[in-house]
Amino acid sequence: MEPHAVPGESPVCACCAEPAVVYQPVIRRYLCGTHLVRDVEERVRTTILETGQIHAGDRVAVGLSGGKDSTALLVILSRLLPTLPGASFVAITVDEGIAGYRADTMRAAKSLTQRLGVDHRIVTFRALIGDDLDTLLIGRETHACTICGILRKKALADAARAAGATSIATGHNLDDEAQSVLMNAFRGDLPRLVRTTGTGTSETFLPRIKPLMAIPEKEIASYLFVQDLFSVLPECPYTKYALRAEVRALLSDYECHHPGTMQHLIESKKTIEQYCAGTPVMEPLHRCRECGDPCSGDLCQVCRLRHSLGK
Fold this sequence. Notes:
Layout: E1 22-24, E2 29-31, H1 33-50, E3 59-63, H2 68-80, E4 88-95, H3 102-116, E5 120-124, H4 125-129, H5 133-136, H6 144-162, E6 167-169, H7 174-187, H8 190-194, E7 208-209, H9 217-225, H10 243-257, H11 261-276, E8 286-287, E9 294-295, H12 301-309
Parallel strand pairs: 3-4, 3-6, 4-5, 6-7
Antiparallel strand pairs: 1-2, 8-9
Helix pairs in contact: 1-9, 2-9, 7-10, 7-11
């Protein structure tokens, strides 16, 4: 029998007598809405402080897609950053130009930033490369996630620098991080497996931080739902071409039967990073001969993509 669960009765919170809204299988604990919100925000605060993701005086650019993860990230940071003297943030939304999808998430992003009183900036693929994503992908649909990822990263980084940001925060959760570990292992991609994006300087890359990296996707959805912040939004139509979709389904099923699997994958990545410490697994950085951005070869990914697209 699960803790705090009585046969025939709804389970109650481990911290009070209120009805539970979520179950944390790894630690076998039920939580009500109030204590779930407190627990999630405290774990995010601990992640930020223990990993040094945000410091006093930082200006954080929050990548706000309008989806649940980035929404939770912005809400939590709006509550936590006032405790860090001088820290500020700006929300940045990238409009890729995806019909039947991006308009709804853009509205959600605008509504949230207005509600929170947050500075909100929007950048587009059209301004970056001259076309929206739908046009760029004609005949290249199976490469959607690769093309979109390269351009979105560039658009977000440029907008963050323009906003005077010292780092970029993304809404990657525990599920996302575990999926990335497994995907890189499947590909045999050691450099990506051990690469960290949480460090860097303004002369090279803006550090990318992930305050939600310890929170499971289900708990993020519940966190928003109990605060009436959850919005039902369409899924990107290009998701069906992504390897991540297959890995997500596989890993979710395994986590269901073996709670803690995702966390174990994250811990395995940390162990591999320690073994590789001091070993040159990454190619040395150069400057792109066309745009000047840091890259591992003569041309950065964006410039290579421009040439392949005839831009």
